[in-house]
Amino acid sequence: MMNKNIVLFGFMGCGKSTVGTELARKTGRKLVDTDALIEKREGMSVSEIFSKHGEEYFRNREHEICVELAGKERLIISAGGGALTFRRNIEALREGCKLVLLDVPPEVIYERLKYDTTRPLLQCDDKLGAIRELYARREAIYREAADYVVNGDRPRGFVALDVMKAVGIL
After folding, report:
1. Which of 32, 34, 113, 168 is at a distance of 20 to 30 A from 98, taking alpha carbons?
2. Taking 80 as the threshold, does the pLDDT of residue 95 lie above it?
3. Running DSSP on this structure, what letter comes out for residue 28?
């Protein structure tokens, strides 16, 4: 396990980036955020990519990143909220990675994201309804993909320690 990557995934707002930052600090591993890497390479935000090129284009870039990162070692990978809803990404990452689902209930996600205007899938009047609907569609897929499920509804330091315990590096 020591060289395997740790992939943090789950619904938007579950804490992948904040927990990932904490994990990188605690383990000395490099944090790579798949959405941020796509944004850097495309020269525009995820919202702009969706708007200009569509979701399929974005998902293809996302898959390329998953394949690339799976071939590396000792990374903390913060995967975009939808990345592990696609079998091809799960299969690509499963090889060199431990997949950790940060599990957070829809109501907590709503509280974390209610003022967020950057997420294309939440640009609607009923954000809580949209979160519940999308969460319901993704939950079983997330759980099936996960090597480990960690409660993400706690302070980031505790969640990071729980991830480290789950994957066997603590």
Report:
1. 113
2. yes
3. -
DSSP for 133-145 reads HHHHHHHHHHHHH
The answer to whether 97 and 5 have CB atoms below 8 angstroms apart is yes
Does the reported pTM lie above 0.85? yes
- Mean pLDDT throughout 103-128? 86
Alpha helices in the chain (DSSP H): 16-27, 34-42, 46-53, 55-70, 87-94, 106-113, 127-145, 156-167
Q: Are 74 and 30 in contact (CB under 8 A)?
A: yes
Q: Tell whether the model's pLDDT for residue 82 goes beyond 60.
A: yes
Strands, E assignment, 124-165: 148-151
Report the alpha-carbon distance of residue 157 to residue 117 in Å, rounded.
Answer: 27
Between CA 68 and CA 111 the distance in angstroms is 34
